[in-house]
Amino acid sequence: MVIESRAPSCEANRSRDAGGIILGIESTAHTFSIGWVDGLGVPGKSVSAFVRPVKGGIHPREAADHHAKHAGNILQELLDNDVQLQDVKAIAFSQGPGLGPCLRIGASVARSLAIQLNVPLVGVNHCVAHIEVGRERCDCDDPVLLYASGGNTQVIARLDGKYRVLGETLDIGIGNMLDKFAREQGIPFPGGPKIESLALEWLHDNPDPSLEGLELPYAVQGMDLAFSGVLNAALNLVEKGVPLPAVCWSLQEHTFAACVEVAERAMAHAGKDELLLGGGVACNERLRSMCQIMATSRDSTSHVPEKFLCIDNGSMIATLGRLQLLWGSETPLDESGVRQDLRTDETPILWN
Ligand code: AMP
Ligand code: MG
């Protein structure tokens, strides 16, 4: 693989004015959100509604029904408080990857708005949006991204004009694994934050903790990861009577270490000295601190955007939509169909 010279600074992106507001619509999975950026890329607030299944995982059709039910009110709330329709310059939406029925709700809202306002439509890649909102907000130019969300876990770097997936989960996303573990313990979705607080509880009661008796499989396979085995092993520990806070702590230690190890190898292979965290699991303070420790030990830097920009949100879709608009990558109506299986490395990176 040819490794291009360093990516140009993203500062150049901020000096270009798109001439108005870009709306961004997110609907890949559990979140329906509309957010915006101004012409210079400064994000405004996103208004969001989240599917919270009481039992089981996310059902695509039920999530789509939820999105359809909330879309009108969310748009209205944004128009009542933040955005004037006459200032809107373009409509960006998550074109993929994601759950088909959910994506189609966002795409339909986006098409209707673009036609009604007679402004361009910009279909964006959800995974690339996580990267670009992080680059813009954290002032890092050419990072390795550790993208740790509900449905995705990928280690990504910009090589030869595209964001390449250097390593990824071979089964479920790390967030889904945490949510499934939590669900089995009667903890509602999203389980990650509660697991974090239980792990902290264990640390508080055991300031010098040991992994003895709490060992779990360490699921790194080359540059890839896997989380199903570790999930089953953690469930077995609880069944054997090991205290839940101890298992939560061990689960975080094992799986976060695996992610950070792959990210470090990616930085070494790709010759990058910035690490960027993204996705909902990037809200976790332990994962943030492990990344910081690893980056510092390599004379590198670790970055993470504000928590409201880590979870899925409309403003990150608007951030990428603005870049594509500035670099002439609009989406004609007849090419605006959703792409459930869109890969991170299918999107050409035209901007700085
Ligand atoms: P996303 O799919 O990017 O919107 O992120 C949602 C996922 O992030 C869910 O699986 C959550 O359980 C997870 N998550 C959110 N906050 C935390 C946290 N503090 N620690 C671990 N996971 C989290
Ligand atoms: Mg996401």
Give an overview of the whole structure:
Mean pLDDT is 93; it is low at 1-8. Helix 2 runs parallel beside helix 3 and helix 6 (192-205) crosses helix 8. This protein has a five-stranded mixed β-sheet with strand order 3-2-1-4-5, sandwiched between helices. The protein has a five-stranded mixed β-sheet with strand order 8-7-6-11-12, sandwiched between helices. Strand 4, helix 3 (100-117) and strand 5 (121-125) form a beta-alpha-beta unit. It has helices at residues 11-14, 60-81, 100-117, 126-138, 174-184, 192-205, 228-239, 244-270, 285-297, 307-310, 314-326; strands at residues 21-26, 31-37, 47-50, 88-96, 121-125, 144-148, 153-159, 162-168, 220-221, 224-225, 274-278, 301-303. The two termini are 21 Å apart. Helix content is 43%, strand content 18%. The structure holds adenosine monophosphate (AMP) and magnesium ion. The site of magnesium ion (MG) has 5 residues, from helix 4.
